Amino acid sequence: MKIVTTKQMSKVEQRAEKLGAPPKILMRNAGRKLAERIMEITAKEGNSPEKTSVTFLAGSGNNGGDCFAAAYILVYRGYSVTVVNLVKEPSTELAREYFAALPDRVKIITGYRSENIEAAIEAAELDYMTIQDRDVSKLKGKKELSAVEKILLREKQRMTEIRSAIISADILVDGVFGTGFHGQLEKDLMAIFAVGTGAYKIAVDIPSGGDGSKGTVSPGCFKADETLCLGCLKFGMTQYPLKKLCGNITVADIGIPNEAYDVLSGEHGYYRLERNSLAGFPPKRERDAHKGVFGTVLVISGSSSMRGAAAFAALGAMKSGAGLVKVASVEKCIDTISVLAPEATYIEMESDDYGFMLFDSSKDALKEAMDKADAVVIGSGIGVTNDTMEIVRYVIANSPVPVIADADAINCIARDIEILTNRKSDVIITPHPGEMARLLNCDAEMINENRIMVAEKYAEKYGITVVLKGAGTIISDRINTAANHTGNAGMSKGGSGDILSGIIGSAVAQGFSPYDAACAGVYMHGLAGDAAAEKLGQEAMLPRDVIDCLSDAFRILKEKQSENNSEL
Q1: Is residue 276 part of a domain?
Q2: 448 is in which domain, residue-wise?
Q3: Cβ(401)–Cβ(326) under 8 Å?
Q4: Residue-averaged pLDDT of the chain
Q5: What Cα–Cα distance (Å) separates residue 291 from each residue in 44, 286, 324, 346, 430?
Q6: Are both 398 and 492 inside the same structural domain?
Q7: Is residue 132 pLDDT above 80, yes or no?
């Protein structure tokens, strides 16, 4: 699915105007789509419009204008409609026009402070929380009020009116900020969004308080049951924590011509991974095919204390279609893997006293194996020693085929970035946020707050493919960035990443480009995880179950592909 950044969406809308779809038409269509969705929800619940109350929390910009356009339609359908202007009065020309058109039957609440009140509150050194903490019940009975008391009473009445409109609503619509929000919500908005209500909550385009570019959220962000995304999904909505607050996401066609998206031609492309994104994967298996057709994966992995990592990487490659898997590891590791994966072949590497691979005695065997491979997977469980540093450096500098660097290979690169700059072939790195933080010498919090930018910039700087793991895994190269939606929290266990590296290596070996292979690997890994969770539950499932469920993932994928073909 094609998705866009918030900046790209602005360009598309500007282009749409030149193609005969001006902002007024788009706002009218957005309002109509929002109203239609509210009517669908009402009908689904078995309620009548006359018995349904809808409250719109509206901002001053065009997001609020979308609410006004929907309110106009709904009130003539019999709904009880309330509009609460939360920021200030409508400020854009279109928002003012649609607001002015609202009939008297729409209840309007001024939910924002006047500039005079703002100045008085500041002068009195009050803030929202101190106002709310004050007991103002006695103020109504006083004959004369001080200036501060008048402020307290007016603010309390304002919040009471807003709270009443929210609590009494059957459907609550958030149209305060939309995609233009950055920074932190004000305290009173946080409190308004936190008002307890049984209403069904809809966000227009994006929950207010969410950053549509990064996927981060302000404390107190509106939590929606459903988000009606206008025109096109915004990339930040694929990332957590924002995705969690969006609820169910629906993309509404508001009349933007397809040609308008041509304005983005040549720009970095953004996508949400879907089964249709995996065109040609897995490759068709002809009856006369042999193992050489499906490629050879060389897995350089494991140590005496990390034997499972090598097993998972090898099994991930084998269970996702590779024709041949060779494992280069130490003797104790091979003894274990050969029982779990007798189909693989093995290259025994000498080890030091701690069970980690040695470099000098294994260099020639590695070179020979790389020359015969179609993909190299390196890093899972190898440890970080002087010798493993040399192994990673040698492999990336000499491999004639793409290298998938995971786990300790990434940690080795973090110690010497020249390992990456001296690459001979394409490289795919698969860091989790902690490993990405080590690569950038920062903390994981910075990575999580800037996941999209980090993956893109790192891929661009070093000319590689970055798979930044986590909920909503991001895959990025110099041209495209994709976000995944398969997978679940049950995969948050040691060993899951090793399996992923093997699956990606298998896809590369079967002839897919590094970016396409990474997309296919991430999607299938998550799909297998979802199948395992369905069978066993997220708590009880293990990485070995994800491997076992790869067959289910391929079956599901092929069934869906067959359905698509039958529809054509």
Answers
A1: no
A2: 292-567
A3: no
A4: 92
A5: 53, 12, 6, 17, 27
A6: yes
A7: no
